[in-house]
From TrEMBL:
Keywords carried by this UniProt record: Hydrolase, Protease
Protein name stated in the entry: Ubiquitin-like protease family profile domain-containing protein
Ubiquitin-like protease family profile domain segment(s): 43-181
Record GO terms (molecular function): cysteine-type peptidase activity
Family: Belongs to the peptidase C48 family.
Entry superkingdom: Eukaryota
Residues in coiled coil: none
UniProt entry tagged with the keyword Protein biosynthesis: no
GO BP: proteolysis
Length: 238
């Protein structure tokens, strides 16, 4: 149904696009397709917000690309999203991490200075690379906290040796259940339209000709709630 022309052909089938229906788990191929489209557009904000990974791909403290350490100040587009008050005063910090298509969660007890990882696929770091990436993650969070005016999670060189223990949780039953379950309908619709009507899509003209046959998925219970209907009426009245 969709062939994106990037460095190589990236083909999406009807099954991949069907995962955008309300109540379904979005296939990883859909997320990859959106990344390809955003990268092709040279979206400055998208590139800057993902620069921490691109400059330190394996969790190196000294970037092999810039030969510099991670500094929050080097990511000006990310700074407006830092909630300094919560980051410096809240007893817990939750930080989702994604690498190679897999998600896990860092949980930090800032009072007791204890660090935990919730990973539904692994009970310990599966490789030395993951161990290094986890250390780098702790370092980045600590640097962000210090930038916001709070105490770093560790002091001096110990900041680069932050270790988090893996919490024993229920294992996932597939390779993709780790991802965020997205029930926000307008995102699903946006993904479908941006992928099908992208200039990178070889079948774009065919998608446009057939667009009057496209039907949106049934709205979720959230959008059909009384609260949303009342607010929608208020907006129309204004």
């Amino acid at each position: 149904m969709c062939t994106l022309i990037a460095q190589d052909k990236y083909i999406l089938t009807r099954m991949h696009l069907a995962s955008l229906q309300a109540g379904s788990y979005i296939e990883a191929e859909i997320v990859s397709a959106m990344c390809l489209i955003l990268n092709q557009k040279n979206d400055k904000r998208f590139q800057e917000q993902n620069m921490a990974i691109s400059k330190h791909p394996n969790g190196e403290f000294i970037s092999p690309k810039t030969n510099k350490e991670f500094r929050v100040e080097d990511y000006p587009s990310f700074i407006p999203f830092i909630d300094a008050k919560k980051l410096t005063s809240h007893p817990y910090i939750f930080a989702p991490v994604c690498c190679s298509g897999h998600w896990w969660l860092w949980v930090i007890d800032t009072t007791k200075r204890r660090f935990h990882i919730l990973d539904p696929l692994h009970k310990k770091a599966p490789s030395d690379q993951r161990k290094q990436l986890n250390k780098f993650t702790g370092y980045v969070i600590s640097r962000m906290r210090a930038y916001a005016g709070g105490e770093p999670l560790k002091k001096d060189e110990k900041e680069k040796e932050i270790k988090a223990s893996y919490v024993n949780i229920s294992g996932q039953k597939s390779s993709y259940y780790c991802a965020i379950y997205d029930e926000v309908d307008h995102y699903r619709v946006e993904y479908a339209s941006r992928i099908l009507f992208s200039e990178m899509n070889k079948e774009r003209d065919q998608a446009i000709r057939a667009s009057n046959a496209i039907r949106l998925s049934k709205p979720s219970s959230v959008l059909l709630s009384l609260f949303c209907q009342i607010n929608s009426t208020d907006i129309e009245t204004e």
